[in-house]
Amino acid sequence: MEATEIIIRPLLTEKSYAGIQGKVYTFEVNKKAGKVDIKNAVEKLFDVQVEKVNTVIVKGHKKLQKSYRNP
């Protein structure tokens, strides 16, 4: 897998902005990529030395659909 296929996009949230001061960056990555793949992709794309990779799988929220029935 190519580095551009592994790193999908950076996540820019309030929580991720707080981590930037501690040199912690957050990315959305391909689910099939492992920690070593992610480390190598970030090092190749951004020309940095990666110390540690943390991963988490976040499931989406279910949306509540209202039923519009005539009474």
Structure description:
- The longest helix has 12 residues, at 35-46.
- The protein is built from 3 helices and 2 strands; from the N terminus they run αβαβα.
- The protein is an alpha+beta fold and 71 residues long.
- The chain has a two-stranded antiparallel ribbon with strand order 1-2.
- The protein has helices spanning 3-6, 14-20, 35-46; strands at 7-10, 27-29.
- It has a domain at 3-46.
- The N and C termini lie far apart (55 Å).
- The chain is elongated.
Mean pLDDT: 91
Distance between the termini: 55 Å
H/E order of the elements?
HEHEH
List the total number of helices.
Answer: 3
Radius of gyration: 17 Å
> Widest sheet: strand order?
1-2
Protein structure class: alpha+beta
Approximate helicity band: 25-40%
So what's the overall shape? elongated
Number of strands: 2
* Spans of at least 5 consecutive residues with low confidence: none
Beta-strand proportion = 5-15%
Tell me about the biggest sheet? 2 strands, antiparallel
Short characterization:
This protein is α+β, with helices and mostly antiparallel strands and 71 residues long. The protein has a domain of 44 residues. The protein contains 3 helices and 2 strands; from the N terminus they run H-E-H-E-H.
